[in-house]
């Protein structure tokens, strides 16, 4: 019996959009891209919360997840994009690379393809750096435009933070994506004016005309299907109706939270969890839903003087990267000036987020049900 598709990509975020677009470059291959959220096929259809990069989108296209950062803290919102484009369609468009030492650490942990030397060509291919196109570590012809705010474009609060960092003796940094950079300066960002350039617009938009690419939005992945030990398709729910789609290859690109959940529902994960949930064991893999990493941050809030900040200003333009006292991890800290703080009603606030970018803590997912609508709990390990 012939398959419906040659490849099914589950999840149309930063990974899924790229994979579907690249594989569909081969005309004989039939590619299906499924996404739980809606699809906006062109710029005219794009709603304001997805178009305007000056604001992150926290409600209209969100999964409404919660996480518990420590054993003594309350559950907090954990924003993730539920739309074609994924979190790249709802974020503030920061295009900041990691430091080379971190990639080389992954290589030492037996992941040689993730060394800095191996990933740098991919960074170069994906970007069109509008400020440093001739630098040997930048690209000038990729699908993702990268630019930095000029000093004249900085809003008063962001400019004041830059002056303060300078007074404190930190070096000024023209390009935070220079492999050896540190200090303060404008963020590299993937945007044009106030338009966010997501993975959907950079990669998927040029591929939409291809006859061999199908995009199926409003479709939840229930589980991956197997026959005789091999993948044979997926079970999904589209607009509330369940059905199966066959394919010999399935790529799960559902993000750090929903990919493990999809694996668990498909019978792949820790044996004790699968047995507790009543899911047949396809493959017992203890690491599924474990070793989650993020950059913890605190955001001291400030009351600005009238007229200093405004909702229509860019929320993020600049940053300071530095190494914590006594640390061996270069650029493990970051101060992120926030022009305004998101809150419902009340007085206008601004702030500075202090972020740990070399975290040694880990998180895990707790699964209470194998139901398609059950969300995993995000907990400290």
The number of distinct β-strands equals 23
What would the average pLDDT be, to the nearest integer? 95
- Give the N-to-C terminal Cα separation: 45 Å
- Roughly how many Å is the radius of gyration? 22 Å
Summing up helix and strand content along with how strands pair, one would put the structural category as alpha/beta
- Taken from the alpha-carbon principal axes, the silhouette is globular
Largest sheet: 6 strands, antiparallel
Strand content: 15-25%
- Low-pLDDT runs: none
Number of helices: 8
* Helix proportion range: 10-25%
Topology, element by element:
Blueprint: E1 7-10, H1 14-23, E2 31-34, H2 48-51, E3 65-67, E4 76-78, H3 100-108, H4 116-126, E5 127-129, E6 144-146, H5 156-167, E7 183-186, E8 191-192, E9 195-196, H6 199-204, E10 213-216, E11 219-227, E12 230-238, E13 241-246, E14 250-252, H7 255-265, E15 268-269, H8 271-277, E16 283-284, E17 297-298, E18 301-302, E19 318-322, E20 333-338, E21 350-356, E22 363-366, E23 377-380
Parallel strand pairs: 1-2, 1-14, 2-10, 5-6, 15-16
Antiparallel strand pairs: 3-4, 7-19, 8-9, 11-12, 12-13, 17-21, 18-21, 19-20, 20-21, 22-23
């Amino acid at each position: 019996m012939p398959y419906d598709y040659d490849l099914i990509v589950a999840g149309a975020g930063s990974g899924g959009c790229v994979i579907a677009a690249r594989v569909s470059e081969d005309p004989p291959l039939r590619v299906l891209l499924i996404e739980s959220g809606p699809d906006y096929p062109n710029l005219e259809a794009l709603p304001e919360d997805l178009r305007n990069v000056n604001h992150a989108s926290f409600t209209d296209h969100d999964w409404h997840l919660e996480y518990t950062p420590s054993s003594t803290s309350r559950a907090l919102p954990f924003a993730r994009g539920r739309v074609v484009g994924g979190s790249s369609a709802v974020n503030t468009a920061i295009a900041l690379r990691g430091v080379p030492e971190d990639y080389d650490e992954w290589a030492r942990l037996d992941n040689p393809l993730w060394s800095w030397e191996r990933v740098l060509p991919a960074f170069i291919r994906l970007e069109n750096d509008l400020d440093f196109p001739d630098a040997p570590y930048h690209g000038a012809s990729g699908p993702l435009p990268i630019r930095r705010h000029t000093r004249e474009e900085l809003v008063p609060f962001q400019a004041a933070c830059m002056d303060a960092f300078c007074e404190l003796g930190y070096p000024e940094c023209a390009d935070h994506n220079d492999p050896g950079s540190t200090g303060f300066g404008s963020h590299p960002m993937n945007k044009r004016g106030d338009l966010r350039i997501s993975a959907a617009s950079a990669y998927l938009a040029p591929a939409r005309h291809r006859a061999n690419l199908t995009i199926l939005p409003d479709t939840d992945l229930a589980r991956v299907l197997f026959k005789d030990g091999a993948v044979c398709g997926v079970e999904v729910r589209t607009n509330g109706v369940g059905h199966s789609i066959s394919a010999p290859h399935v790529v799960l690109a559902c993000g750090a939270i929903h990919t493990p959940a999809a694996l668990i529902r498909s019978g792949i994960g820790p044996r004790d969890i699968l047995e507790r949930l009543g899911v047949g064991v396809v493959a017992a893999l203890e690491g599924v839903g474990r070793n989650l990493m993020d950059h913890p941050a605190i955001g001291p809030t400030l009351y600005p003087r009238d007229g200093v900040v405004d909702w229509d200003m860019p929320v993020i333009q600049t940053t300071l990267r530095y190494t914590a006292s006594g640390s061996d991890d270069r650029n493990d800290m970051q101060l992120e000036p926030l022009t305004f703080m998101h809150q419902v009603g009340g007085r206008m606030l601004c702030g500075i987020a202090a972020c740990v970018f070399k975290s040694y803590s880990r998180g895990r997912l707790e699964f209470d049900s194998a139901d398609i609508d059950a969300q995993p709990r995000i907990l400290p390990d």
